[in-house]
Amino acid sequence: xxxxxxxxxxxxxxxxxxxxxxxxxxxxxxxxxxxxxxxxxxxxxxxxxxxxxxxxxxxxxxxxxxxxxxxxxxxxxxxxxxxxxxxxxxxxxxxxxxxxxxxxxxxxxxxxxxxxxxxxxxxxxxxxxxxxxxxxxxxxxxxxxxxxxxxxxxxxxxxxxxxxxxxxxxxxxxxxxxxxxxxx
Length: 184
Prior knowledge:
This protein has 184 residues and is an alpha+beta fold. The protein is built from 5 helices and 11 strands. The strands form 2 sheets. It has a 6-stranded mixed beta sheet with strand order 8-1-2-11-10-9, with no helix packed on it. The protein has a 5-stranded mixed beta sheet with strand order 3-6-7-5-4.
């Protein structure tokens, strides 16, 4: 076992080496100057008079609309259910759900299934416009003249058209969607 003076000298030697190594590079308590942004890929769609950007990672499916089975005694914004590969998925009228001035969508023949954890919900699309990749810094916060809903916090401007970025997690965990009987 080294004696106390030897241990003290060893610690000083290590401290000197660390100081020398740190003087030529970033100090240990500094963070990298910039972390590269993650590119998010979106599908651009229209539903009624809404133009939406939906992160592709939040989708499980998009394609032709399967046959909807209508169910009685449900809110008007629930259009029914579909069977996709033996999985039953609810279909909602998204503009009706968010209270878009009584302007429902849901006349389209396309369909998207959104997912968050184990929950899935689908809605009709009037049109699939395309796809685009954007960084978070490319999004624009909503101002007072734009739709004010908790499901949209940002938007994208693509070829002079503004698209609301749909917050799928907020939609699929909304109390009104999760338990529409209690939420009224």
